[in-house]
Amino acid sequence: MEWTPDSWAAKAATTLYPDTEALAVAKAKLASLPPLVTSWEVERLRELIAEAQDGKRLWLQGGDCAESLVDCTSDIVTSKLKILLQMSLVLLDATKKPVIRVGRLAGQYAKPRSNPFETVKGSDGTPVELHSYQGDLVNRHEANAAARRPDPMRLVEGYHHAAMTLNFVRSLVHGGFADPHHPENWELGDRAQELATELRNAYGRARESLRRVLDLAAALDVRDAALTGVEFFISHEGLNLHYEEAQTRRVPRRQGYYDLTTHFPWIGERTRALDGPHIEYFRGIVNPVGVKLGPKATADEVLRLIEVLNPSNAAGKIVLIARIGASKVREVLPGWVRAIEHAKKRVLWVCDPMHANTRGTAAGIKTRDVGDVVSEVSASIAVHRELGSVFGGVHVELTGENVTECVGGAMGLADDDLTRNYATLCDPRLNYAQSIELAVSMARALTAAE
Q: Is 419 part of a structural domain of the chain?
């Protein structure tokens, strides 16, 4: 089957938007708008991923499980950026490897659902069937028929909010905010007091180490762009293929089609069927591609996915994001790694320690234990060390807001604490202190593995 940006539609089993005329108008508008990212940036990310595949860099990807359009504010965007910068500093100091920083932002507006409909209580208490909330790119979160009806114009609205978010991030990164000489810019006000003493000291040591390196570079008159700023990339799950297709295009003096909604789109565990629309779309774009892998994936399935998505085995193209669960890492991951290594496939192994460690409380609230999150990362690092393969990094859901959505860890949150500030639209996220705890624990595991 010849690939085109819309060839995926022939494999789509259902129509998400009932109003097909409105959908055509929205997609035409979206296609006429400037791209959100450039092919140069996409190619740069592929270069960095290729280096990470060789063990020369670490991957740090994080942000909201589902971005909200109303959360497109300077404070919320800045706090996510600050956390990723602080986490990367901890990892850089420990491993002495440069970190690829990738935000789950400026486009993470669509969320998968097992069932397109759900039953809720109406105003009179009787059951009412509504479209499930599928992210702000599709419908609204309020539980009423008008809000839940899929609206194609939200594709355009999502684009505009992504553009505003990305513009602000670029302004911060290139305007001096991310200058390593001034890590005090990355502090979250008095939020450092939320860190346990051990974690606060660990981050302080990383800051001091960075200061010494920069002082030495200045004394030696070393001048390099890496000493005055950082690179930052954006990503989102490429779930809504109407959105991705509309911004997929050729660019002058380059081969192939680029998805210019984001630098790094990924395929979810629920949408990676080899004969499905998402694999059909993703096999045709130049961007580096992530693939989420749950514990039921077989080594043969993983190999077939790589063959379809990267038949030339090009470097920097494939990121395999393992979301296995802390208790199953040693059972599942070695088989995948051995198969990929034997086939000599170029991939970056990344651990998503969030999704397979979700559980429900007695009150019916979704949560994750920080201990499980840390354990999955540590176990993954150990497996790669034992097999002689490269552990690439992590993909986590986090927020700069002072939420209480994950339990355990140094903060010692319990199930009863979750209702204090449970704000997520979908899955539980690590808060600031829990994110730094993960970075410190990961740094220790990586240095112990050397």
A: yes
